[in-house]
Amino acid sequence: MAHGSRLVDLVHERIEDFLAERSSILRSISSDLEPLDAFSRRFLSGGKRFRALFCYWGWEAVRARGFDAYASDGESDRFPVVSAASALELFHAAALVHDDIIDSSDTRRGAPSAHRLFEQLHDDSGWAGSAPGFGRASAILLGDLLLGWSDELLDEGLSALPDRASARAARAEFVRMRTEVTAGQYLDVLEERAWLTKPDSEQRLRAERVIVYKAAKYSVEAPLTIGGAIAGATSAQLESLREFGLPLGIAYQLRDDLLGVFGDPDVTGKPSGDDLREGKRTVLIAIARERLAPGQRRLLDELLGDPELDAEQVGMLQSTIRQCGAVDEIERIIAEHVARATAVLAEAPLSRDARAELGSLAKAVTRRAH
Predict the structure, then answer these.
(1) What PANTHER family has UniProt attached to this entry (predicted)?
(2) Which residues contact 98 (CB under 8 A, 6 or more apart)?
């Protein structure tokens, strides 16, 4: 993972350079825009950088230059993929800002979410009008700004790519990802409200659809194929990256769903049971509903999505979900999807070193505690 650590450093440096250029534009407009600069840096300063890592290893899997070549590669050789990996981090930050508004989340990574930061700014400044209204409006604009910047950063990288066909292919993968994740986010919002009108028999399938488009493709599959396309991947190589990325992305999100219900707030940076208060209709909840007796299922339905759930109610729901066997089933599904993904690597037309690193990443993203 040493080269992965080096990539994280390169992505951090690329993001810092890019933000420095854009912040000069903001400052030239008005000093009142300083919060946009400060908050954008805040939301891009940390994170696990999994999407950036998958983008890089998708590139390396096709390029197949080997680890020894890494140190001797010039900056210009890495610039397109580092820029694309950095663009994915900006896109992710934009998605999180908007997601927190949609979910009315107070925190992100153990700190106030963007709309709460803007709300506090309004309160501290003594401005007129509604502080929550200002917070939401400003955070929407921050998310939009980050979204636009992610596109600019990607284009800067692709413009330096000599192979224009590869640049077009990478851009097409990015555009498709952007459409899919937006569609998946809408389906997620829809499920929280429309589930009552849908047959119980469809709820797991509908929850699985949300996972695929909101998370799996966007978190793992698309970063891999964007990196692969930059390196000039063949159709067979791209297909291998997809066959590895999709099941792994599903396992990644299923782990996230477990953390959203059972995660330690000191580790996840989110209140315990946050997904229960937000009413997330995940695969975990769909499985629990299939297994629960009618009375328990009705109680789950009544409490799920109540933002005022107290610790005792959260604990009761956690016990109900665990005792019905839903958690064990999710763990089994995660293991199956990881096995399916790693099996692809055995015969994939990808570099040996990258296949080994992707296997390690598969374990890291599905065994994490936050």
Answers:
(1) GERANYLGERANYL PYROPHOSPHATE SYNTHASE (PTHR12001), SHORT CHAIN ISOPRENYL DIPHOSPHATE SYNTHASE (PTHR12001:SF85)
(2) 139, 140, 143, 185
Pairing state of beta strands 111-112 and 107-108?
Answer: antiparallel
CATH number at residue 164: 1.10.600.10
* Four-CA torsion 357, 363, 369, 370, nearest 10 degrees: 50
Q: 0.85 exceeded by the pTM?
A: yes
Longest dimension (CA), the chain: 65
CA distance 13 to 36: 19
Q: Do 274 and 105 touch, CB atoms closer than 8 A? A: yes
**pLDDT tens for residues 233-251?**
999 999 999 999 999 999 9
Residue 300 lies in domain: 2-366
Point out which residues pair with 108 in neighbouring strands: 111
Could you identify the residue written with the tokens 């890495």?
A: 78
Question: What dihedral do alpha carbons 60, 62, 65, 68 form, nearest 10°?
Answer: 30
Residue position matching structure tokens 């096709």? 62
The pLDDT value given to residue 66: 60
What's the structural domain count of the chain?
1
User: Please, how many CA atoms are within 13 Å of residue 265, restricted to the half-sphere of its CB?
Assistant: 11
Integer Cα distance of 91 and 111 in angstroms: 20
Q: Count of CB atoms within 10 A of residue 266's CB? A: 9
**Token digits of residue 344:** 């692809």
Which CA distances in Å does 280 have to 245, 264, 304, 319, 344?
Answer: 24, 18, 8, 17, 31
